[in-house]
Structures are given as C-alpha cells and as structure tokens.
Amino acid sequence: MIPDNCFTRSRARSSMAVAQDLLLYLVAIVALVFARQWWLIVPLELLAGLAVSGLFVLGHDAAHQALFDSRRVNTNVARVLFLPSLHVQEAWVVGHNRVHHGFTTRQGMDFVWHPLTPPEYRRLGRLGRLRHRLEWSWLGCGAYYLREVWWNKMIRFDPPPKHAAAVRTDFRLVAGWAALALGGSAALGWWVGGSVLWAVLLPIELVVVPFLLFSGVIGWVVYLHHVGPEIRWWTSADWTRRRAQTESTTILRAPWYLNLFLHHIFVHVPHHVDARIPWYQLPRAAEAIKAELGATVTDTRLRLRDYLRTTRACKLYDFDAGRWLGYREAAGIS
User: Fold this and answer.
1) How far is Cα 159 from Cα 137, in angstroms, rounded to an integer?
2) How far is the CA of 209 from the CAs of 46, 71, 176, 216, 278, in angstroms?
3) pLDDT at position 295, please?
4) For the chain, what percent of residues have pLDDT higher than 90?
C-alpha cells in the first residue's frame, strides 16, 4: 500500500527541523525576558506555545523511531524535545505508542478522547457533567488534554512493572527540568525586575503560559484526529486494527503556516497505518493510501466551521449504532 521510499529518513532534514523549532523556542523565551508591552508579550507567548508544540511533534516522531535511523538517538532526542512540554518519554511510549496506536478508537481501550455513552454520562454527578460539557466544547480541548492525557497518563501514571524503572527515570528528568526552569526563571525575574512580583511573573511567562498554550494546541489537534461525525469508534466485537487505523482518523489539509510549526501532523491516517513514516513523507504516503482505499479515507480541508460543527454534534457515542450524539439527542437513549 505504501511505497518503500515513504520510509526513507533524512538525517539532515530531521536535524534542520529540530534546529528550527529550538531556535524559535529560544528566540521567543529570550524576547519574553525583556518584553514589557502587552502587544509584544502576546505574540511572543503564542510563538513560544507553537514552538513547544513543534518540538513535541518532533519528539513524538522520535518516540516512534521515525525521526532518525538510530534507536538510541531517537530515544534521547525524544527525551530532550519533550522537556518544554513536560512529557515523560517512556510514559508516552507506553500510553501512546502501545495503547493508543495498538487499540485506536476501541471501546474500553483507547483512552484518547474516548467518548462516553448516554447511560455513562447520566451516571455522572453534577460536577462531572459540567466538566464533560467544558472539555467537549469548542473551548475545552486543552482542559481535556491537561487532565486526561498529561495529568493522568504522565504525572499520575502507574506504569506496568516491566516499564516502571524506565518511566520513573524519565519522570525524574522531567521533574528536574521543571524545577530548573521555574527556579531559574524566578531568579532571572528577580535579577531583571528587582522585585518579588517579577520573580513570580517571569516563570509564568516563560514556563506556564507556553505549556498551557501547547496543551490547547495539541488537545485540539488530537481531537480533530479522532472525533468527528464521520469518525467511527468501535466495540471490541467490531474492532479490527486495519479498519481503526484507516477509518477512525483523518487527513486534514492544513495551511502552510500550521505545517511550518506542526510538521504535517494533520495528515494522520498514514501515521496510524505505519508510525515509522517520517513527518515529511506523510503527504506522499497519504496519496498512496487514498489510491488504494478511496472514499474510505476521510480527506478534507482543515476548516474552523467544521471544527465548530463537530463540537456541537459529537458529545456522546452510541457504540451499538456506531454514531455520535448531541446531548439533547442522547437524552432519550437508554
């Protein structure tokens, strides 16, 4: 299905992408140290958040062993690139590579944007329903990602025994980075601003806000990958790996400026078909998959109105009927 040349990796191209995103991140962070006007701070924070997102996407590829030829280089690069987004590389490998890719959109298995059924939603308490309505709204992707993916699968993650030592080692690396970044930026704030206020504000500007913006961006991206009126989630009886990897994710044609930061992450079907494909080969692999599977593959432009339509229509899921439901429509389903 996918030509062999789609698996060819270019060390030069991967290295240039890593250097680009690191440079954008460093430029944004250094500029934020000295920026005083809000009209400078706002775009610089956006740049920092996008740069963290770009570094994370490249780290995600490296964690899949798709960035460089060497397994050791990929693993170490992933560790470094995940630091600004405070992600634990080994925990990500267990949760994302093994669970999400191994059981994509399978009921009870895939934890990424797993929908509730109408009875499950009705069993939630008042606060649980309120949280669900926030996280599944057009504003809620970042909140969902922070809670379900980052907090539950990175910070509170209890790894299987055979992965425990590696996960804990990487967790200590991320915790050390967070302490260094927050403490260092607080000391820098005191030095630059000469006050406690600056010692508090600078860690927020340099660490917290870029991390929160990253969570919003990546939460939105992952939502678009696996939620939509045409995207099927499956019961264990109906699920097959091939159907899930080709029918339960999307190819979204994003504008060039998003691909500059996010490295074709929206071309997601070929990534699920074979995660070894480098990011710059994804468009070519997508054409090969479409040529074989045709209309089975969801291929459309990335449009804001489609995203808003999806957030209105896709709240809960009827696994028996294989369809998404809004809250009102789900009210009469037992």
Assistant:
1) 31
2) 9, 32, 19, 11, 29
3) 80
4) 94
- Residue pointed to by tokens 């480098």: 278
94, 134, 222, 322 from 329: Cα distances, Å: 36, 18, 25, 14
Query: What is the identity of the amino acid at 49?
Result: G
Instruction: Give the pLDDT of residue 334.
Output: 63
**293-321 mean pLDDT:** 94
Helix 38-63 with 209-226: angle, nearest 10 deg: 50
CA distance 145 to 106: 19
Only one residue has tokens 């992933």, namely 78
**Per-residue pLDDT reduced to its tens digit, 118-151:** 999 999 999 999 999 999 999 999 999 999 999 9
Going by C-beta distance under 8 Å and a sequence separation of 6 or more, which residues neighbour residue 167? 88, 90, 91, 94, 157, 159
Q: Do 319 and 117 meet the contact criterion of CB atoms below 8 Å apart? A: yes
* 297 within 8 A of 290, measured Cβ to Cβ: yes
250: part of which helix (H) or strand (E)? strand 250-253
DSSP type of residue 114: P
For the chain, the farthest-separated pair of C-alpha atoms sits apart, in whole angstroms, at 64
- Which tens digits make up the pLDDT trace of 88-124? 999 999 999 999 999 999 999 999 999 999 999 999 9
- Please count the structural domains in the chain: 1
Q: Which helix (H) or strand (E) holds 325?
A: strand 323-325
Domain region containing 78? 4-330
Distance CA 70, CA 72 (A): 5
Contact criterion met (CB below 8 Å) for 91 and 170:
yes
Output the pTM of the full model. 0.96
Tell the residue number behind the tokens 């499950």, with chain if given.
120
CA dist 85 and 53 (Å) reads 8
